[in-house]
Amino acid sequence: MPQDSLTITDNRTGRTYEVPVAEGTVRATDLRQIKVADDDFGLMTYDPAFMNTAACRSAITYIDGDRGILRYRGYPIEQLAERASFLEVAYLLMVGELPTRQQLDTWTDTVKYHTYVHTNITKFLEGFRYDAHPMGMLLGVVGALSTFYPDAKHIDDPANRELQRVRLLAKAPTIAAFAFRHSRGLPFVFPDNDLDYIANFVNMTFSIGGRHKPNKVLQRALEILLILHADHEQNCSTSAVRAVGSSHVDPFSAVSAGIAALYGPLHGGANEAVLAMLDEIGDKKNIPAFIKEVKGGGGRLMGFGHRVYKSYDPRAKLIKKVADDVFAQTGLNPKLEIALELERIALEDEYFAKRKLYPNVDFYSGLIYQAMGYPTEYFTVLFALGRMPGWLAQWEEMLLDKDQKIARPRQIYTGKDERPFVPIEKR
Ligand code: SDX
Fold first, then answer.
1. Which protein residues touch ligand 1 with a CB less than 6 Å away?
2. Which pLDDT score is estimated for 61?
3. Could you identify the atom of ligand 1 that is nearest to the CA of residue 49?
4. Known catalytic residue: 306?
5. Positions in the chain short of pLDDT 70
6. Which domains does the chain have, with CATH numbers?
7. Ligand 1, atom 39: nearest CA belongs to which residue?
C-alpha cells in the first residue's frame, strides 16, 4: 500500500478506497469514486468560504500563519520592505526574479511609457458625484479600460498579456490620483515621467499649481506600505481575480473584480473601518466599554484577526515601524494613542487570545495614510495600488497553470423538490 495515500472505508457500503495524498492534499475529484449506488454522483467536499481548500498551486507568495512568515518568491517581506523599491517588488512578483540593474531600468522606462490614460477617462471620472467613494470610481474606471484596449481580450498571446499587465500597473496610480482630484474638485494633474513611480503618484495627487514639494521620508514610507500590500497568496480579492480571469475575460475586467472584493470592510476596506472605529471610541477611557461590546458580539475589532495569521501579521509589525518615521515628520496622529491602548488591552484579553486575534495589516496602515494627508475613504485605494502587481502575477500564473480551467464550484441543493407551476389566480 503506497505510504502517500489514505485508505477510506465507506461505512455506508463497507467498501474501501485508496486515495493518493500529494503536497498535503487529496484531490477532491478522487472522492467522486466513493458512491452508494452506480448512478450516485459520488462524494464531494463541502467547504464554504474555502476554509480548508487549496484552489491552486502557486509559486508567488508563501505565508506561514503560525510563525508570522511572509515571503514574495522566497524573499522575506522584511528584507524587501527595507531594501527594494516598489517597482522592483512588482517585477519580482510578476516575472519571478529580482531584476538586474539593466532589467530594472528597462522595466521602469516601460512602466513610465504607459502612465497616461485616454483623456476620455477624465470624462468618466467627471461623471461621478463629487462624494463618490474612490473605490467605486477605481472599480468603474479599471473595468472601463477593457473598452479602451479591446486587444486585451487576446489573453492567449503572452506578449499581449505582458503589455496589458504593464498598462494596468502603470495606469493604476494615474486613475487613483484622478479619483482623488475629482473628489476635491481639483484639475487633473497628468503624469510627469521625470518622476519615479511613487513621486509621480504623489505629485498627481497633491500638486497645486506646480510640482508638489516632495517629502522623501513620507514617499519612502508610502512605497514600503505598497510593498507590504503587494501580494498575499489566495486572499479574497486575489481569488476573485483568479475566478473571473478563469473565464478568459481580459485582465482589466478580472482585476476590477478584485477591486470590488477588496472594497469590502472585511478585506481591504478594513483600514477605513479601523479609523471609523477609532473615531467611534473617541477616547482611551471608552476602550473597555468598546471591548466589552465586541466580546458580546456587538461588532468586530476592525484591523484584528486573519484567516491565515494566527500570530502577529508580520506586515503589522513593519507598519508600526513605518508609523514612527511618518509621525516624526507629520506629528503624532492623536488616534495612535487609542490604537496602541486598544491593541494592548486586546492582546491581554482571553477572548482575543483564545481566537488568536492579533493586529493585521489594516490596523495601523490607516493611521499612517491619514497622517500623510489621505482621506479615510481613500485608504483602500492605496491598498489596491499596492496589491496590483500581486493580482497581475496571480492572474498570469492562473492562465499558465495546466491544472486550471473555468472556476465552477458545485453545491448542496437545499431547495424544493419538483412542483407544478401555479397560475397566478390560484396563488
Ligand atoms: C485583509 O486573506 C488575506 O490575506 C487578507 C489580507 C490581504 O493582505 O489580502 O491580509 C488583508 O483583509 C486583512 C483582514 C482585514 N479585516 C479586518 O480587520 C476585519 C476584522 N477581522 C475579521 O472580520 C476577521 O478576523 C477576518 C475576516 C479577517 C477573518 O475572519 P475568519 O477567518 O473567517 O474568522 P471568523 O470570522 O470565522 O472568526 C473566528 C472567530 C469568531 O468568533 P466565534 O464565532 O468563534 O465566537 O473570531 C471572531 C469571530 O467572531 N473574530 C473576531 C474578529 N475576527 C474574528 N472578533 C472580534 N473582532 C475581530 N476582528
1. 232, 235-236, 266-267, 270, 294, 300-308, 355, 357, 360-362
2. 98
3. 33
4. yes
5. 1-2
6. 75-264 (1.10.580.10)
7. 355
